[in-house]
Write a structure and sequence with these properties.
The protein has about 400 residues and is an alpha/beta fold. It has a five-stranded parallel β-sheet with strand order 3-2-1-4-5, sandwiched between helices. A five-stranded antiparallel β-sheet has the order 10-9-8-13-14. The mean pLDDT is about 95. Helix 3 (about 65-80) packs across helix 8 (about 240-255). Among the domains are: about 5-65 and about 95-175, HUPs (Rossmann fold, 3-Layer(aba) Sandwich), CATH 3.40.50.620; about 180-295 and about 340-360, Argininosuccinate synthetase, chain A, domain 2, CATH 3.90.1260.10. The protein has helices at about 15-30, 45-55, 65-80, 95-110, 125-135, 155-165, 170-175, 240-255, 280-295, 300-315, 325-335, 365-370, 380-405; strands spanning about 5-10, 30-40, 60-65, 115, 140-145, 180, 185-190, 220-225, 230-235, 235-240, 260-265, 270-275, 340-350, 350-360. The chain is elongated and about 85 Å long. Strand 6 and strand 7 (about 185-190) form a beta hairpin.
């Protein structure tokens, strides 16, 4: 293969990506450009810039992508009510295509011939990053150090860091009890002390939420307004997408909402146990389904729900930029044209309780459903023919079964 001249590295400034940065310089002898994205992970990003400068990096990109993340990635996903394996709100998976997209854009802008990431060879993220890279720039060179180098243990990683004058904080010298990934939508914790799915996680594992037991003994009541499927206002105050999710996160945190202990099926074939916290996203999902319940036609709603598992799996597996995901997104977005209105909620000790929903596009008719006189809106006699027609194949099957001596 041709030698790499210039590579854009997805860089957090932590120990692993700092080792990767230096390893790229030493092993490939190439110029490294660093890209650090603020997706709301809650960490100070200035140290990442300082570390990159210390390594002689000339082109350093540190960008606040929180609004783009929520508006262009999280919101489209939530229009689908996406849950992987019925539970996981895809907080890590949905962040990867945005990071990969900006890496490719930066690579094109600075004339880089390669991109690099710090995902290991056992996880899903390597797939998510690289599928996105190739979808956006088919001829890009990808460097995945964890699949190439011989730094296969914590000891070797620290030895490399020390021999190349990479600063190591005291908390990084010992074995981390578990790994954490976070962004504005969620935090995930996995590995080490969490690998045994039979053992309950210690309370110290949780990053984003109070325990339900420690939450207030009174409910918090909120109102969430939607426009065309997206939340736009909280308690009557119009907010930007990232600001609104930040507010929902705070409310969810205080009320112990959004914890999930999940054993999932990774795309690469193994099962893994993760502890996820998605406080604001959990409120968002419940409220979105509530406003859809009065604004979506039954056929449209049921079709959308039937497609959701496939859509969620595409995101989980890294196919955000695939044609099939775009096709499903077009259908989902078309379904959201009338999904506008207000949802009333109570937040209480880990629960999100819908107490009301209203919309100018509501399909709910009190005249039709009332147990009182509906003034001719619905002729109950019509139900007799409806039932008989739907029962026809059942009756014919039953009669045929009797004649044949079997069901």
């Amino acid at each position: 293969m041709q030698p790499v001249k210039k590579v854009v590295l997805a860089y957090s400034g932590g120990l692993d990506t700092s080792v990767i940065l230096r390893w790229l310089q030493v092993t490939h002898g190439c110029e490294v450009v660093t890209f650090t994205a603020d997706l709301g992970q809650g960490e100070e990003l200035a140290p990442a810039r300082r570390k990159a400068e210390m390594f002689g990096v000339r082109e350093i990109f540190v960008e606040d992508l929180r609004e783009t993340f929520v508006a262009d990635f999280v919101a489209p996903m939530f229009r689908a009510n996406a849950l992987y394996e019925g539970q996981y709100l895809l907080g890590t998976a949905i962040a990867r295509p945005l990071i990969a997209q900006r890496q490719i854009e930066i690579a094109q802008a600075v004339g880089a011939d390669a991109v690099a990431h710090g995902a290991t060879g056992k996880g899903n993220d390597q797939v998510r990053f690289e599928l996105a890279y190739y979808a956006l720039k088919p001829d890009i060179r990808v460097i995945a150090p964890w699949r190439e180098w011989n730094l296969t243990s914590r000891t070797r990683l620290l030895e490399f860091a020390e021999s190349h004058q990479i600063p190591i904080t005291k908390d990084k010298r010992g074995e981390a009890p578990f790994s954490v990934d976070a962004n504005l939508l969620h935090s995930s914790s996995e590995g080490k002390i969490l690998e045994d799915p039979a053992q309950a996680p210690d309370e110290s594992v949780y990053q984003r939420t109070l325990s339900p037991e420690a939450a207030p003994d009174h409910a918090t009541e909120i109102r969430l307004d939607f426009a065309h499927g997206d939340p736009v206002a909280l308690n009557g105050e119009t907010l930007s997408p990232a600001t609104l999710l930040t507010r929902l996160n705070a409310l969810g945190r205080e009320n112990g909402i959004g914890r999930l202990d999940l054993v999932e099926n990774r795309f690469v074939g193994m099962k893994s146990r993760g502890i996820y916290e998605t406080p604001g996203g959990t409120i968002w999902l419940v409220a979105h389904r509530a406003i859809e319940s009065i604004t979506l036609d039954r056929g449209a709603a049921h079709l959308k729900d039937s497609l959701m598992p496939a859509y969620a799996e595409l995101i989980y597996n890294g196919f955000w930029f695939s044609p099939e995901r775009r096709m499903l997104q077009a259908l989902i977005d078309a379904s959201q044209v009338s999904v506008t209105g207000r949802v009333h909620l109570k937040l209480y000790k880990g629960n999100v309780i819908v107490t009301g929903r209203e919309s100018p596009n509501s399909l709910y008719s009190t005249r039709l459903v009332t147990f009182e006189d509906d003034q001719g809106a619905y002729d109950q006699v019509d139900a007799q023919g409806f039932i008989k027609l739907n029962a026809l194949r059942l009756r014919m099957g039953a009669m045929a079964g009797r004649r044949g001596g079997a069901l």
